[in-house]
Write a structure and sequence with these properties.
The complex is a heterodimer. Chain A is α+β, with helices and mostly antiparallel strands. Chain A is 42% helix and 14% strand. In chain A, the strands form four sheets. In chain A, strands 1, 2, 3, 4 and 10 form a five-stranded antiparallel beta sheet that branches. Chain B has 25 helices and four strands. In chain B, strands 1-2-4-3 form a four-stranded antiparallel beta sheet. The longest helix of chain B has 27 residues, at 227-253. Chain B is globular and about 80 Å long. Classes of the chains: A alpha+beta, B mainly alpha. The interface between A and B is medium-sized, with 26 and 20 residues. Chain A: Keywords: DNA replication, DNA-directed RNA polymerase, Metal-binding, Nucleotidyltransferase, Primosome, Transcription, Transferase, Zinc. Chain A: GO terms for molecular function: DNA-directed RNA polymerase activity; metal ion binding. Chain A: It comes from Caenorhabditis auriculariae.
């Protein structure tokens, strides 16, 4: 099934892709964040990347139509998204005070950064085994972004070859300045050089930050880390020296002891068990109840060896520079990767685990789907007595791209809802309230001291006002 | 929002604001000026005489400068620090309150708060014109705020904060108990300490410094900040506010029709951001000849100038940045135009024909001495100008070695100067903490065989370095100068200058050996 992609076909297939498969409507709805017509959209920088890495930067478009027209005309190999600027990006030469003002908070995870721990593949190749690194990275980051920072709109996009990008679309995230972005990125990034920062504080007063705790338990959950350790051979014969010298704080005595024990055990499974017996409180408790012989409890900094071991192998290795610059360009969702032909498809955090890189929608296959899709739609329309023959065929709805477009639309709803003003009328006065998500509406009403209306009375006026779902009107009478 | 306002609109807005502020001031009954530990949200709106304007501004400026100097020798809020600082500001009779426990009558107190507010806002105006000045003022003001904050009881601080628009929500006891484990591991405290500490909720964007260090508990975008870290949050809030307000003030300053009255006053205030003296070289003309430079360079040049000098001698060339930084420095230590021209010619013509030198470089040198172009003699660069303007590329030799050099290379250079490994490490550490002025002062002390801190002041101008060095070498300055005394000396010289400034602003040539003086 998975034959390699022939990139010579790129120029031939791209026009068809942009014309029939690129989901313009949702895409532009996303970048407009609930404004129609949207100045926000018009101040966004787009970059078209043509053959031979020619970059056309600072492109901007007033509306969906002009964007669609230009994209279908130029047919760029890649499409990047930049920031929202204070002026129209296409006028960037006219203004001396041109600066990026807003932009989604983005993160980039690339499997090439895992080459130190990845034994199945190297560099650009990716197999289901190494995809697990991505799965775990997404699981951890998604949890932290949600629970610690309270970000609601999070989209994970397969980059087309060997990594994922995260787009956080909450208004609060978009408004972060460079300082804020770098603070969030530094908070999330545990790696300093090739070391992991699992401890805080000085020699005596050490503590484990919450983030480390969260990441560690997420990694161990459901035996995920364990199975990765076997697959990647981290606990194989002869690995003892390497493993136990990773953590520089480990005392020499314990290191010798562990190396000895490790080498005495015949299988990786038993070695993992041994490590847990040393460093996991729950495991020790259970063993104690069963009356097993326990090793002495590790003291001081030795206690944290297993945390270090686990996180050094699987903690997300972020490319911090991508996240810190407001004006950094990043590959857009639904862009084609020119080397692999894969579409950069949006995934929800839960989808990432099921996602198979080799089955990702690919440009040549999509184009091959088109004739059958066309005939299918054609038949249907004939059955429905087609109303006008000029209707554009939205092939993505019927192709293998469909479920990813749905993911995307869900994200767009969340992102937009985070940014809209809820217009709420009580008698004569109107209160504009900036809200996080729909579920907050009730809290706000509560805070305003108004009885929360029954569910039926809280209705989107989208159809009436033609402003998508961005305005919710509450009629208290 | 981005539409350009025309100046008339802006001016009328300023007037409206002025009236509004006055009304606010008139309506607020007993507390005309926000009391202690305010966040400087509302500017003062009453009328004030020019004499008082000057007095209050100078008082605050000197308080801040004393603070800056003390910080060099001691850790902020140490007992020693407090003692020296209080001693210093008492000497010049500052009425500002640094610590609430000070015994003062009600009226004295009220007056002090009034001076506090007015002084703060005057300095904002005075220092808003250049990036380096803004940065300096914000740093000093924040330190003053921090000092006051740390000396207060929690109760007083919170009462003060309640009067500001900074929103804080206290974490209830039950919520704290509920989250006790997470708060402990979030802030690195023991459970018992958490139980007796008060926690405050702020949006995470207000607590970026703590988040960066992973030193605070975060939940749903809210940071749970323990009382002892609250000062960090409030300071960063104040920093943002001040920086923004000063940027706005700068925009509007030109609209005020105050060219003759306030603007010159403000300008003379901000000239004092560094050691104050502008070095033009007029006063020392012909003191130095080019033959003396090699010797002077090894004894009395700061590291930056030493580096350029060596580079000139070995490469027989200087790029533009180096020519300007070094040329103006030499002019200010008293190298005459003729000497400067000969120095450069001798070196440059080793690598190029003499007519090329005349065509491409001679003009530039005459320009610096005010003999060409707009015919204004230029001042030598201060440290902040060297650090902030025009950073050197790899082929340049100008800039500040503590700011622009890789740590390893800096260490090598320092070793070559004969410093011990300990000393080198200390200086490199300071430079990596962005304390370039401290690094340079330490270098001065080490190379002049003085005790650490004996210089008593930070180096903020290469020519100041040179002058002080000459004083030490000629025996006009003791190497073991007591810290406090040297400060008093500099404070006194400043006070004389301040008084002179308000009476006659004319420039007087000063002696190289004289006390620090400031020219307008």
């Amino acid at each position: 099934m998975s034959t390699a992609y022939e990139s010579v076909r790129l120029d031939h297939d791209l026009p068809t892709y942009y014309k029939s498969f690129f989901p313009f409507k949702s895409f532009c709805k996303w970048l407009s964040y609930g404004q129609v017509p949207s100045e926000y959209f018009a101040r966004r920088e787009f970059a078209f990347i043509l053959a031979d890495d020619v970059h056309l930067r600072y492109k901007s478009f007033n509306d969906v139509l002009s964007f669609e027209k230009e994209l279908c005309k130029v047919n760029p190999h890649k499409l990047d998204l930049g920031a929202v600027y204070n002026h129209f990006p296409r006028d960037h030469r006219k203004h001396s005070d041109m600066q990026a003002v807003e932009r989604e908070l983005v993160f980039d995870i690339d499997l090439t950064d895992y080459d130190a721990v990845r034994t199945c593949c190297t560099e650009a190749t990716v197999c289901p085994k190494c995809w697990k690194f991505v799965v775990l990275a997404v699981k951890i980051l998604d949890k932290v972004l949600r629970e610690d920072f309270g970000f609601k709109a999070r989209m994970w996009v397969f980059s087309g070859r060997r990594g994922v990008h995260c787009w956080v679309g909450d208004a609060k995230a978009r408004k972060l300045n460079n300082l804020g972005r770098s603070a969030v990125a530094e908070y999330l990034n545990l790696f300093i050089g090739n070391k992991v920062e699992v401890l805080k504080g000085r020699t005596k007063m050490t503590w484990v930050p919450n983030l480390v705790q969260t990441a560690y338990s997420s990694a161990l959950e459901g035996g995920f880390f364990e199975s990765m350790a076997y697959e990647q051979g981290w606990l194989n014969d002869g690995r003892a020296e390497i493993i136990f010298s990773l953590y520089k704080e480990l005392s020499a005595d314990l290191r010798t002891e562990l190396i000895e024990k490790f080498n005495a055990l015949p299988t990786p499974q038993l070695r993992w068990k041994m490590l847990k017996m040393y460093f996991e409180e729950d495991e020790r408790k259970r063993a104690r109840q069963e009356g097993l012989n326990l090793p002495l409890e590790p003291q001081n900094r030795d206690k944290y060896f297993l945390k270090y071991f686990v996180l050094w192998h699987v903690y997300p290795r972020l490319d911090v520079n991508v996240s810190t610059g407001t004006n950094h360009l990043l590959k857009s969702p639904f862009c084609i990767h020119p080397k692999t032909g894969c579409v950069a498809v949006p995934l929800s955090a839960d989808d990432v685990a099921q996602f198979d890189v080799t089955k990702c929608p690919r440009l040549d296959r999509l184009v091959a789907e088109l004739p059958s899709i066309n005939s299918e739609i054609g038949e249907k329309e004939e059955g429905d007595q087609k109303e006008n023959g000029q209707r554009k065929v939205l092939a993505y709805r019927h192709s293998s791209l469909a479920k990813y477009v749905e993911n995307f639309e869900k994200y767009v709803e969340l992102a937009i809802f985070g940014s809209v003003a809820i217009v709420y009328t009580v008698g004569r006065s109107i209160n504009h309230v900036d809200l996080g998500t729909v579920s907050w509406v009730e809290d706000v009403l509560d805070a305003l001291g108004v009885d929360v209306p029954q569910a039926g009375r809280l209705r989107p006026l989208a159809s009436v006002l033609r402003l998508s779902s961005s305005i919710v009107s509450l009629d208290s009478n | 929002m981005f539409a350009p306002e025309d100046s008339r609109q802006r001016r009328s807005k300023i007037n409206v604001d002025r009236i509004r502020i006055k009304e606010v001031a008139a309506n607020s009954s007993s507390v005309d000026y926000p009391a202690y530990l305010q966040l400087y949200e509302i500017p003062p709106g009453n009328d004030i005489t020019l004499a008082e304007f000057d007095e209050i501004a100078v008082e605050r400026l000197r308080t801040l400068k004393a603070l800056e100097n003390c910080k060099d020798g001691y850790k902020l809020n140490d007992d020693d620090f407090k003692k020296v600082f209080r001693e210093q500001i008492r000497k010049f009779g500052s009425k500002l309150i640094v610590n609430c426990q000070e015994k003062k009558t009600e009226t004295e107190r009220a007056d002090a708060w009034r001076r506090d507010t007015i002084g703060h806002f005057i300095l904002r105006l005075a220092f808003c014109r250049t990036v380096e000045n803004v940065k300096w003022l914000v740093n000093q003001e924040l330190d003053l705020f921090k000092l006051r904050f740390m000396n207060e009881s929690e109760e007083v601080v919170l009462r003060a904060l309640r009067n500001t628009q900074f929103e804080l929500e206290k974490v209830s006891d039950s919520e704290r108990e509920h989250l006790v484990n997470k708060l402990a591991s979030g802030s690195g405290m023991s459970l018992d300490v958490v139980r007796i500490t008060s926690f405050w909720k702020v949006g995470f964007t207000e607590a970026l410094d703590l988040i960066r260090k992973r030193q605070v508990y975060l939940q749903e975008g809210m940071a749970y900040v323990p009382y002892e870290d609250l000062v960090v949050i409030i300071c960063s809030h104040l920093r943002t506010q001040m920086t923004q307000a000063m940027a706005r003030a700068y925009k509007n300053l030109g609209m005020l029709e105050e060219e003759n009255r306030l603007l010159p006053r403000l300008k003379s205030l901000s000239n004092n951001a560094y050691d104050g003296k502008q070095y033009t070289g007029n006063e020392n003309e012909n003191l130095v000849t080019r033959k003396m430079l090699d010797k002077l360079a090894s004894t009395s040049f700061p590291l930056c100038m030493k580096h350029i000098h060596t580079s000139l001698r070995s490469n027989h060339h200087l790029k533009y940045g180096g020519r300007r930084q070094y040329g103006l420095f030499l002019k200010a230590i008293g190298l005459s135009l003729d000497e400067a021209m000969m120095l450069m010619r001798e070196e440059f013509t080793k690598k190029m024909p003499s007519d090329k030198f005349d065509k491409e470089y001679a003009y530039n040198i005459r320009y610096m001495y005010g003999k060409e172009g707009r015919r204004v003699a230029q001042n030598a660069f201060s440290c902040s100008a060297i650090i902030l303007r025009n950073p050197p590329s790899t082929v340049d030799c100008h800039g500040c070695p503590y700011r622009h050099t890789e740590p390893q290379i800096l260490a090598q250079r320092l070793q070559k100067e004969g410093l011990t490994r300990d000393q080198v490490e200390k200086i490199v550490n300071l430079s990596s903490q962005h304390s370039y002025d401290k690094a340079c002062s330490r270098f001065f002390e080490y190379t002049h065989k003085m005790e650490e801190g004996a210089l008593g002041q930070l180096i903020t101008h290469p020519n100041f370095y040179f002058e002080e060095s000459q004083k030490v070498l000629t025996g006009k300055r003791a190497t073991t100068a007591d810290f406090v005394e040297s400060h008093v000396a500099s404070a006194e010289s400043q006070s004389s200058l301040m008084s002179r400034k308000s009476s006659c602003p004319s420039r007087e040539p000063t002696d190289i050996d004289g006390d620090m003086e400031l020219d307008d």
